[in-house]
Design brief:
Layout: H1 7-36, E1 53-55, E2 61-63, E3 71-77, H2 82-97, E4 102-108, H3 114-123, E5 133-134, E6 151-155, E7 161-166, H4 172-181
Parallel strand pairs: 3-4
Antiparallel strand pairs: 1-2, 1-5, 3-6, 6-7
């Protein structure tokens, strides 16, 4: 017995594929929300974010309050994120040039913590990046929801949010930092 062409079978297969794809997309969104938590939207301009807490590689706890008097560029990233990997050379360059006027804090949200970050940094020594981790599951909550990475946040000298954006565009972080340092 030979198979006959049944257009409804293809239609059903297409609908099933769309449903599976949509479910995966929604599931991925839910995973991102679970990973990054926060409120239902980003913190507004002027919000005090000085209580954001993070850990250095030695396990020492820090907060943004320690950076009062400096403009701070916070880059929320992960080792598995292609746009983050693309942005890291610029972030590292800004971090190396930081000093009295500003600081750059790349905070990784990798679920494996230092177990993911340290090998990544060892495999990419050309970056010379000094990374940090959030100090607990709610440490980044003052920033509001971080629904995608990289997310970059610019904090003024008083610990208040100036700007935030998600995604990577070459030169954007440097331009925003330069504007903040000039007081615009």
């Amino acid at each position: 017995m030979s198979e006959t062409y049944q257009p409804e079978s293809r239609w059903r297969l297409g609908v099933a594929a769309l449903l599976v794809g949509g479910g995966l997309l929604l599931g991925g969104f839910a995973v991102l929300r679970g990973l990054f938590g926060g409120s239902s939207e980003g913190a507004s301009k002027g919000a005090d974010v000085s209580q954001v807490a993070f850990l250095d590689a030695a396990g020492q706890r820090h907060t943004l309050a320690e950076y009062r008097g400096k403009v701070v560029l916070v880059d929320v990233w992960a080792t598995w994120c292609p746009p983050c990997r693309e942005s890291l050379p610029e972030v590292a360059e800004l971090q190396k040039a930081s000093g009295e006027a500003y600081a750059v804090l790349p905070i990784s949200v990798d679920r494996g913590g230092w177990g993911d970050v340290k090998p990544f940094l060892s495999q990419n020594p050309q970056l010379g990046l000094k990374a940090f981790l959030p100090d607990g599951g709610k440490a980044l909550d003052p920033f509001g929801e971080i629904s995608g990475i990289p997310t970059t946040l610019l904090v003024d000298r008083r610990g208040r949010l100036i700007r935030r954006w998600s995604g990577y565009a070459g030169g954007r972080a440097r331009q925003a930092l330069d504007e903040a340092l000039k007081g615009r």
